[in-house]
């Protein structure tokens, strides 16, 4: 447990390092921060913080830089009450973004873009899972005797579609009957609820092979759409960070972050345990060597198993207070939109 004075010294060092990306010495801290102690005391505190693993000295003659443990102590202090959630910066997405976004995908894209501009990091907004979303309407559009298009609209505004291919010819009238039947089964239900209902004896009408085949295609469509629903903006921002000035340093990070499955796993780990007001995973806490140089600030929006995720990914040397507030603002805006849809 750090004393109040050493906590202040650590916070000052982190703020200086975040601002300048250069190792920080005791003289810099005493000259630029009102720590209320002598330079000798600051030097002693820096030595103690280094011995405890909160900071490290890259070179013998250099100043110190924070370690993952140092960032963790700093972030824990922010989350435990040292951060004013009402301070700027704020994301005015609740009204401005919804005014120009007619569908959830558009809202997520614009929210992600706003987050990237505000934080100068990579922002990611992951849609709520369609597997848990309640279905509003299903449309079957005949393209030919052997081909059709299924379009699924969820109550939260998400839209998914899939091309269907039939081994035997299917007349438009038959397709229309299946559409009417499936809308009766699916409307107001999640896919999981609909599939459970379809297996029950109370829905003998779904004994029709065509209806069951289309329902399975709908399931495949929803499952595919639940992956690949991450809106990323700001990858180029990472390229401008000193930590990633060399392309070989960023290449493995980009490779992992472009994989939606990796992202979902990363956010799942970050949000495990329902951390509030948001979850922060720093460097080595991400569990993958390729991500040891980045931090993730993530928060869920929506409810239950269908919750989406809004997150910012940047170097461990990120402005945590600014990023955490920005993520929380985006989370509130997206949750307000979900509430408005219900």
UniProtKB/TrEMBL annotation:
Domain (Heat-inducible transcription repressor HrcA C-terminal) ranges: 105-324
Keyword set, alphabetical order: Repressor, Stress response, Transcription, Transcription regulation
Stretches assigned to the HTH deoR-type domain: 34-62
Family membership noted in the UniProt record: Belongs to the HrcA family.
Main function: Negative regulator of class I heat shock genes (grpE-dnaK-dnaJ and groELS operons). Prevents heat-shock induction of these operons.
HAMAP family, per database record: HrcA
The protein's name: Heat-inducible transcription repressor HrcA
Gene encoding the protein: hrcA
